[in-house]
Amino acid sequence: MGEHYFAERPTAAGRRRTIDLVLPDLHLRLQTDSGMFSPDRVDPGTRILLETVPPPPPTGNLLDLGCGYGPIALTMARRSPQASVWGLDVNQRALELAEGNATAAGLDNVKFSLADGIDPGLRFDAIWSNPPIRIGKAALHDLLLAWLPRLSPGGTAHLVVQKHLGSDSLQRWLDTQGLPAERIASRSAYRVLRVSLRAEGTPQGAPR
């Protein structure tokens, strides 16, 4: 099996290409490369997420969890130019490309980083994610429990997950963790889930 897109430092030979993300309100031309998620086109799940989520908060801190080369984070940055947008990933090659894509798009309100480059005290008014399901259930749960509890009071997360990759079981699991999830859209076997924190605070298993 080939190298996973969630490798920290991909060793696959580079093969740069250009793809377009065209939505009703924006057009982004993005550079991609081998060794990252969906390098040949914007992933259908990502597109469905971006076509169905409500507008992000106009100000505050916004997070793209598992940003890859940046289509979600850059869309957030374009839609909310007064907000501070963060793109988080483990793939160094993808992060470098995302930074270049932001520069090419003239977006200076977005920063791409590894987890340790984000202030641990920072809270987010919105989190959008096409989460890396293929890292495995345990690792995915750890990732979500590390970041979803960092929503600000009143903040929401939107996740897109394929049904056959476990969207319904993930929704049920989120509910058990104090992260109530509701399906807000369903299209082409993808589910878009809206997640919020329970009023009483910290989800089960989350850092205190």
Task: Flag low-confidence runs.
Answer: 201-208
Number of domains: 1
Helix residue percentage: 25-40%
CATH architectural group: 3-Layer(aba) Sandwich
**Record field, number of beta strands:** 9
Question: In terms of topology, how is this protein built?
Answer:
Blueprint: E1 17-23, E2 26-32, H1 44-52, E3 61-65, H2 71-79, E4 84-88, H3 92-104, E5 110-113, E6 124-129, H4 137-147, E7 151-162, H5 167-176, E8 181-187, E9 190-195
Walk me through what this model shows.
- The chain is of the alpha/beta class and 208 residues long.
- It contains five helices and nine strands, in the order ββαβαβαββαβαββ.
- The strands form two sheets. The chain has a seven-stranded mixed sheet, with helices on both faces. A two-stranded antiparallel sheet has the order 1-2.
- The chain is globular, with a radius of gyration of 16 Å.
- The protein starts with 16 loop residues before the first strand and ends in a 13-residue tail after the last strand.
